[in-house]
C-alpha cells in the first residue's frame, strides 16, 4: 500500500454474540479495500445518535456500504413488515441512511454493494421486493447451499451493462459475469438514480446517482469476493480507490 492511503468509512452491522453486542463488518470487503482499492477501512459503529458522523466524514475520503445477512426494514420504504423480509438491523439502517445522504452531499465517493445497493435505492425514495425468485419470469438469484464459500460466491449469470454509463466506463461494454446472490431486489427505482446494469430477467443489478459530485455506484452483486482475481471486480475497486485518492488529494 502506498504512503498516505485514503480512508474509507464502512458502516458496522450489529450482532449479538457470546453475550456481547458487536459492531463489525465482513472481512471480504475490508480485504478488497486494502488489497485492491489501496485504502484503509474505518469501521463506523451503528450508534447514529451517539457519534458525530460529520466529524467522521470530515476525516475520510470515501464510503463503502456492504452486504449483510440483514435487510432494510420495510417501514423505511412504506411496506408492511413480514417474516419474509427478516432479519432486520435498525441500527444499521439509521447509520447507512445518514452516511449515504451526507457523503453524497459532501461529494465523497460512494460504493454501495448488495444491502448497500438496496439502501441506496431506499435513500432515494425507491422500494424493494422480497422473494423475487417467486415472481413470474424471474430467476432464482439466491446463493446455493455449499460449505465452500468460493462455490457459494461463484459467478453464475451475466448482466447487461448500460452503454455510456458509469459502470461501462469502469468495466467496459459488457456483458459481464457476476455473483449476484440475493432474494430481495429493487422494485421501484429511486428518483435520481440511473440503471447501470440488468440481469436477463430484468432485475436491476447496478445503479448510479445522477449528477453525483463524485463516483457513486450501487451493485447488487459481490465484486469484493473476487476483487483480487476477476478483472471486472478488480476494476470496480480500483476505480473506487482512484476516486477516493482524488478526493484526498483535492483536500477533505
From TrEMBL:
Superkingdom as given in the UniProt entry: Bacteria
Keywords: Hydrolase
Record carries keyword Repeat: no
SUPFAM superfamilies noted in UniProt: Class I glutamine amidotransferase-like (SSF52317)
Gene3D superfamilies: 3.40.50.880
Gene Ontology molecular function, alphabetical: hydrolase activity
InterPro entries: Class_I_gatase-like, Peptidase_C26, PuuD-like
A matching Pfam family: Peptidase_C26
Name under which the protein is recorded: Gamma-glutamyl-gamma-aminobutyrate hydrolase family protein
Taxonomic path: Bacteria, Pseudomonadati, Pseudomonadota, Alphaproteobacteria, Hyphomicrobiales
Amino acid at each position: 500500500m502506498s504512503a498516505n492511503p485514503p480512508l474509507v468509512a464502512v458502516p458496522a452491522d450489529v450482532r449479538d454474540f457470546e453475550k456481547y453486542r458487536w459492531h463489525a463488518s465482513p472481512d471480504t470487503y475490508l480485504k478488497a479495500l486494502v488489497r485492491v482499492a489501496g485504502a484503509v477501512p474505518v469501521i463506523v459503529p451503528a450508534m447514529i445518535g451517539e457519534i458525530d458522523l460529520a466529524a467522521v466524514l470530515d476525516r475520510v475520503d470515501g464510503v463503502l456500504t456492504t452486504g449483510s445477512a440483514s435487510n432494510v426494514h420495510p417501514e423505511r420504504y412504506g411496506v408492511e413488515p413480514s417474516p419474509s423480509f427478516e432479519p432486520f438491523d435498525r441500527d444499521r439502517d439509521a447509520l447507512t441512511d445518514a452516511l449515504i445522504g451526507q457523503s453524497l452531499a459532501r461529494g465523497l465517493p460512494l460504493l454501495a454493494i448488495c444491502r448497500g445497493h438496496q439502501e441506496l435505492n431506499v435513500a432515494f425514495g425507491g422500494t424493494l421486493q422480497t422473494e423475487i425468485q417467486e415472481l413470474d419470469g424471474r430467476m432464482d438469484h439466491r446463493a446455493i447451499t455449499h460449505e465452500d464459500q468460493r462455490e457459494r460466491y461463484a459467478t453464475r449469470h451475466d448482466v447487461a451493462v448500460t452503454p455510456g454509463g458509469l459502470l461501462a466506463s469502469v468495466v467496459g461494454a459488457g456483458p459481464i459475469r457476476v455473483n449476484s446472490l440475493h432474494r430481495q431486489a429493487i422494485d421501484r427505482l429511486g428518483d435520481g438514480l440511473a440503471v447501470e446494469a440488468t440481469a436477463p430477467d430484468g432485475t436491476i443489478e447496478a445503479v448510479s446517482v445522477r449528477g453525483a459530485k463524485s463516483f457513486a455506484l450501487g451493485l447488487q452483486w459481490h465484486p469484493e469476493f473476487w476483487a483480487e482475481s476477476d478483472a471486472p471486480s478488480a476494476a470496480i475497486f480500483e476505480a473506487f480507490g482512484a476516486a477516493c485518492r482524488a478526493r484526498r488529494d483535492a483536500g477533505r
